[in-house]
Amino acid sequence: MGAERTKILPRGARCRVSAELKIRGQTMFQIFYPDRAVSSAYKIPYEKLYQRGVRGLLYDIDNTLTEHGADATNETLALMNRLKKIGFRIMFLSNNDEERVVRFNQKIGAGYICKAGKPSKKSYLRAMQRMGTTKENTVFIGDQLFTDIWGAKRAGIYTYLVRPIAAHEEIQIVLKRKLERIVLFFYWRKKRREKREVNDQSRTKS
Q: Whole-angstrom Cα distance, residue 71 to residue 108?
């Protein structure tokens, strides 16, 4: 219907309407934008985060640290031991049931909240309270925009979006991934624009 209406407008007006819709779309999508997007939770520069004052790490589990439903891998165990040695407090925040979370956490022994109800911010706030951290010194790491990242942003927490580990996912998640791609299109376009602006400023100063 909207497209039919724009067709009857003069070309200049159609361009302005199209531009306005794009701006509105970007503004609407920004509530889902992560602060950082990286390839893997295992590639984050944790030592630098600690040096900057970060003390609490909140993690989603499935497709963030391991494949959906899988136990903690040796890579996961090594990362958790490394983070504990650095001095981080760690908690897992999962929408899964307790059996799944406990099984994953068995050899790690970190705090956790199951059936977290993400993207509700309540569990994020409760997790920080249990860790003794604040939104200013806590970081959340997860693989889904509409649950993990949005919930953390609602709680005021700095976010890292990571690529999902497994290529095959449940159908309801596959459908959400299609919507995520639209949001990420605008996110990466914004990042490219910001990078060009920084480069332009650098060339102007030099």
A: 11
Q: Which two tokens stand for residue 85?
A: 């040695």
- Which letter, b or e, does each residue of 86-100 get, where b requires 16 or more Cβ atoms within 10 Å of its Cβ? eebbbbbbbbbeeeb
What SS3 state is found at 107? coil
Partnered with residue 66 across adjacent β-strands are: 62
Residues 66-109 pLDDT 10s: 999 999 999 999 999 999 999 999 999 999 999 999 999 999 99
Q: How many CB atoms lie within 10 A of CB 194?
A: 10
Taking the C-alpha atoms of 34, 39, 43 and 46 in order, what is their torsion angle to the nearest 10 degrees? 0
Closest by CA to 82, choosing from 104, 50, 105, 111, is 50
**Interhelix angle 11-29/171-205, nearest 10 degrees:** 110
